[in-house]
Specification:
The chain is of the alpha+beta class. The chain has one domain: Nuclear Transport Factor 2, Chain: A, CATH 3.10.450.360. The protein is about 20% helix and about 40% strand. The protein contains three helices and nine strands. It has a nine-stranded antiparallel beta sheet. Strand 3 and strand 4 form a beta hairpin. The longest helix is centred in the N-terminal third of the chain and has 11 residues.
């Protein structure tokens, strides 16, 4: 049972990939949508492919595609101070004052905007007005 738990947990976590391990259709879709992206690193998370690039950490932009090369979303890193004003009080109240370590503006395939606040390695998703949606 423990081995199953370890394997299940491992499959849900991000897995770094070499570019050669990313399907050509996914790489082509990425290059077509983001032709100016440089120094791209790849991960596989929840069965999808994630490309990261930009900024000092190399993760100012994070875009996700399905294995069928369908664009899902882009997350653009923003300063924590640019999150909607009610996000920090929500985190303080519901997560024992946990510190927001990273923030991002999420745009999905339909153009819908949301915000992402990372605490303790987990992403909290908020709508455009800063209302909590879910933990991802």
């Amino acid at each position: 049972m423990l081995l199953f738990s370890v394997l299940t947990t491992t499959n849900l976590m991000a897995q770094d990939l070499k570019e050669k391990d990313v399907p050509k259709t996914v790489k082509d879709a990425f290059v077509k949508k983001y032709p100016d992206a440089k120094k791209v690193s790849w991960e596989k998370e929840k069965g999808n492919y994630e490309a990261n690039w930009g900024g000092k950490s190399g993760e100012d932009n994070s875009v996700t595609f399905t294995p069928a090369a369908i664009f899902l979303e882009i997350v653009e890193a923003i300063p924590v101070s640019q999150l909607p004003s009610n996000v920090a009080p929500y985190v303080a109240k519901h997560y024992n004052g946990a510190k927001i370590t990273e923030a991002g503006k999420v745009t999905d395939a339909s153009g819908k905007h949301m915000f992402e606040a990372e605490i303790k390695g987990k992403d909290l998703i908020f709508d455009e007005k800063g209302i909590f949606i879910k933990m991802d």
